[in-house]
Structure formats: structure tokens, C-alpha cells
Specification:
Elements (H helix, E strand, L loop, with lengths): L1 H8 L13 E4 L5 H12 L3 E6 L2 H11 L3 E5 L5 H15 L4 E4 L14 H26 L4 E6 L12 H21 L4 E8 L21 H12 L9 E4 L9
Parallel strand pairs: 1-2, 1-4, 2-3, 4-5, 5-6, 6-7
């Protein structure tokens, strides 16, 4: 908790950036929510590692974010690759303070039509990948306390037709998040699961446009992340549900 108290004290009349002397690791950060979160953390002074399966895209993202940001190609379905990426982050920045678990995919079909390969891709990325990432980061986070964010979804408690793999992965991620909170709080590691509804991202092959103005924007979730990091050390919003304030009005 000492680390988190220092973090809060920085903003009790101090002008020192929130992330001064700290670092963050963000998965699935070549675009959308992950990129917005990484950008917000970098703006707050964090040194950041951003990861994605696509090497070209993550290099572009890191270049866009600028000095103090590392781009690493990493498939979260590969535990050895995740461990290497985290170890390299710790070696480069001397520790790890914030972990934002964001990498995810969606494959949607009637359970009868969903292929085994699609099921495995979603579960391996959204649930197993989250576990591998958290597992790799724990030793570094334990060094002085830290914060883990898991990017879940309202689909983690609201099933929908055609969502068998995605729903299962997010229901599982919510359960994992709740358990690691219990397991790790004695090490002064906070855990918050963020559960958004409709977000204007490229998820599922969607291309954001003006028609998405009613949706949650990636920068909104980035701002939420920074706000949570500013919370007093004694207080933990362990689950945050986020919805568009106004529904889509069609017709």
C-alpha cells in the first residue's frame, strides 16, 4: 500500500505527474481501447510497453505514442512469449506498476455453427491470455504494490444469442478478476474489472464512424483508468460497469 499512498499524495497539491518514476504494460494496444489507455498513461508520465500480435501495427502505435513507449509483438495465447515481454519490460524500466489486460477477440455464431477453432481462439485470447499475462506480471507487481485492470464487458454478465464463446470468455474473466483480487490484495495489488457496453472501436471488424458518436469512446475508458489510479489507496472500485449514457436512436 505504501506505493499507492505515494501515488495519491502526489496529487495532494503536487504538480508531479501521476506516473512519474512508474511504468505500465498494456496488451492489445495497437488500436482502440488499449491504444487510448496507453496514450493516457504516457501523458501522465508512465513509461509504457504496448503489445499486439501484429508487429507492424504495434511498432506504428509505439512511434505514435512517442518517447518512453516500447512496442512489442506478443501473442498473449503464448505464455512463454508473454513472460518474455514482461521480463523485458521490467529490465527496461526497472519494475512494473500498472498492468492493463485488454487483448481480446470476438467470434460470434450459433453454438451449432461455431467451430472448435473459433471457440479455442476466443477462450485462449480472452481468458487464458489474461491469466498468462497476470501470472507473468505478479512478481514485479509484488515488489511495491501495483494495479491490475482487466478489460471485460457487460457481456460478462449478460448472455446473448450467438455469443457462446465470447460470453464464456468474459464470464470467466470476471471470475478470474474477482479471485485474483482476493489472492493479491495482501500484496497491496489492486484489481479492477472494467465492463463496458458498446464502445466505438474496430472490434469484430467494425470501422468506427460518426454513427458511433452515441457509443462509449476509447478515450472515455482511458480517462476512467486514470481516475481509478487517482483513487485513495484505501478505496477500491473492484468492478466498474460502463454504459453509453444515451442509447442509439434509430429511425
Amino acid at each position: 500500500m505504501a506505493q499507492e499512498v505515494k501515488q495519491t499524495e502526489k496529487h495532494s497539491g503536487s504538480t508531479e505527474p501521476l506516473g512519474a518514476g512508474r511504468s505500465a504494460f498494456v496488451t492489445g494496444a495497437s488500436k482502440g481501447i488499449g491504444l487510448a489507455v496507453a496514450e493516457a498513461l504516457a501523458r501522465e508520465g508512465y513509461r509504457v510497453t504496448v503489445t499486439s500480435r501484429n508487429e507492424h501495427e504495434i511498432e506504428q502505435a509505439a512511434a505514435r505514442l512517442g518517447e518512453g513507449v516500447r512496442g512489442v509483438a506478443c501473442d498473449v495465447r503464448d505464455p512463454a512469449a508473454v513472460q518474455r515481454a514482461v521480463d523485458e519490460h521490467v529490465a527496461a524500466f526497472g519494475g512494473l506498476d500498472v498492468l492493463f489486460v485488454n487483448a481480446g477477440v470476438g467470434r460470434f455464431a450459433n453454438v451449432e455453427d461455431l467451430s472448435i477453432e473459433q471457440w479455442q481462439e476466443v477462450i485462449d485470447t480472452n481468458l487464458n491470455g489474461a491469466f498468462y499475462t497476470i501470472k507473468a506480471a505478479i512478481p514485479a507487481l509484488k515488489q511495491g504494490g501495483g494495479y491490475i485492470f482487466t478489460l471485460s464487458s457487460l457481456a460478462g454478465k449478460n448472455p446473448f444469442e450467438g455469443g457462446s464463446a465470447y460470453n464464456a470468455s468474459k464470464f470467466g474473466l470476471n471470475g478470474l478478476s474477482e479471485v485474483i483480487n482476493l489472492d493479491l490484495r495482501k500484496h497491496d495489488i489492486k484489481v479492477t474489472q472494467i465492463m463496458p457496453g458498446s464502445v466505438a472501436t474496430h472490434f469484430g471488424g467494425h470501422t468506427p464512424s460518426e454513427a458511433d458518436a452515441w457509443k462509449i469512446q476509447p478515450e472515455d475508458l482511458a480517462q476512467l483508468t486514470v481516475d481509478l489510479l487517482r483513487m485513495p489507496a484505501r478505496t477500491l472500485p473492484s468492478r466498474v460497469e460502463v454504459r453509453p449514457s444515451r442509447p442509439d436512436r434509430k429511425g
